[in-house]
Amino acid sequence: MKFSGIVKKNLGRGKKLGFPTANIDAPKEMEDGLYVGLANAKPSLIFVGIAQTFGETKRFAEVYILDFTGDLYDQEIEVEIIRKLRENMKFDSESELVEQMKADELLAREFFTSYNLSN
Q1: 3-state helix, strand, coil in the chain (%, to 5)
Q2: CA-CA-CA-CA torsion for 15, 16, 19, 21, nearest 10 degrees?
């Protein structure tokens, strides 16, 4: 699945947790969960859903582009979903969430060591 959107400012929570994300509207037809994919052709983790751990109510696609530094606010990004890693989860604490995010990032990096980016 492919989709795109304009990056919007949100609370900046991902950056504070060590995982800066580009937030765009999530496609209505897409299942919630965490995915490995590409954003502007760069390896990424893509969370689709409501951030249950923080009691959020708005559904987003939060895109964490691996090894990217920069500002994407008000720019369009193109996202391509490759594979679902897991369902959306609610964590009991911020530190529990961060530990899972670190594990998710390791899985994504492993995945991309064998994925041909020119597909």
Answers
A1: 25, 35, 40
A2: -30
Domains of the chain (ranges; CATH) run: 2-114 (2.40.30.30)
Tell me the whole-structure pTM to 2 decimals. 0.91
Nearest residue to 63 (alpha-carbon basis) of 76, 54, 53? 76
Q: Is 55 left (phi over 0), alpha (psi -120 to 50) or beta?
A: left
pLDDT (tens digit per residue) in 93-105? 989 999 999 999 9
Q: 39 Cβ partners below 8 Å, 6+ apart?
A: 22, 46, 63, 65, 77, 78, 79, 80
Place of tokens 């929570």: 13
Write out pLDDT tens, residues 38-60: 999 999 999 999 988 877 788 99
CA angle 106, 112, 43 (to 5 degrees): 90
